[in-house]
Amino acid sequence: NAGVTQTPKFQVLKTGQSMTLQCAQDMNHEYMSWYRQDPGMGLRLIHYSVGAGITDQGEVPNGYNVSRSTTEDFPLRLLSAAPSQTSVYFCASSLLSRGRTTEAFFGQGTRLTVV
Amino acid sequence: GDSVTQMEGPVTLSEEACLTINCTYTATGYPSLFWYVQYPGEGLQLLLKATKADDKGSNKGFEATYRKETTSFHLEKGSVQVSDSAVYFCASYSGTYKYIFGTGTRLKVLA
Q1: Per-residue pLDDT averaged across B4-33, rounded?
Q2: Pick from A75, A91, A59: nearest CA to B96
Q3: Which of B45, B89, B99 should be substituted to probe chain A, the one whose Cβ sees the most A Cβ atoms within 10 Å?
Q4: Are the CB atoms for B95 and A99 separated by under 8 Å?
Q5: Which of A45, B28, B32, B73 is most buried as measured by Cβ atoms within 10 A of its Cβ?
Q6: Chain A partners within 8 Å of B49 (Cβ)
Q7: What is residue B82's three-state secondary structure?
Q8: Residue range B44-54: mean pLDDT, rounded
Q9: How far is CA B69 from CA B1, B24, B52, in A?
């Protein structure tokens, strides 16, 4: 069981470039989310989805887009990379039951550097 | 809004010492509470959880009790090992589709 798979693991971008971070889960989880992890700030929610075709903003959505065309995939797009987006990005998924989630399962992370 | 506050690290202990990492929360309802652990270069893994007041979560020798009266969920272990060296995150979930994480506490255990 692969769980949550993120690609790539490492990426270096130039300012202004765009790219997509991939996230896939094979657990049939309705809920998927993207976080960024920065020193001293813990994990901050960027975007989340409660099912195919449904997405919503988290705490720090500016500069990022998401879509959810299938239950399995939840890509995160950086529209025009900025140095402030240098961070480690985590994708997470969980089951939804009557509007409540169970524990979240995390991917291995993508370390992004914007120069 | 909801928030989670945990003690700042790093925490450095000798092997077999006792560990306590404090965590308090604020929430409008009755959240579920979690402790996650992150080993170097990896994602977060669930360590333990509690879903209602007075529940005790436990795993791998770690324990935490959901204390509604003090809004706390402190992580404890009686005897730490070098392999416990990691970053520990306290988190809450109140049913709004948003997990709230603390800033993380780095634990270093010396042999």
Answers
A1: 93
A2: A59
A3: B99
A4: yes
A5: B73
A6: 103
A7: helix
A8: 93
A9: 19, 11, 12
Sign of CA dihedral B77, B3, A35, B33: positive
Q: Is the dihedral of CA A80, B38, B102, A73 positive or negative?
A: positive
Please say whether the beta carbons of A105 and A3 come within 8 A: yes
Give residue A76's pLDDT: 98
Q: Are B19 and B61 in contact (CB under 8 A)?
A: no
Cα distance from B94 to chain A (closest Cα, Å)? Answer: 8
- Round to whole Å and give the CA distance between B100 and A36: 13
Mean pLDDT of chain A: 92
pLDDT of residue A103: 85
pLDDT at B73: 97
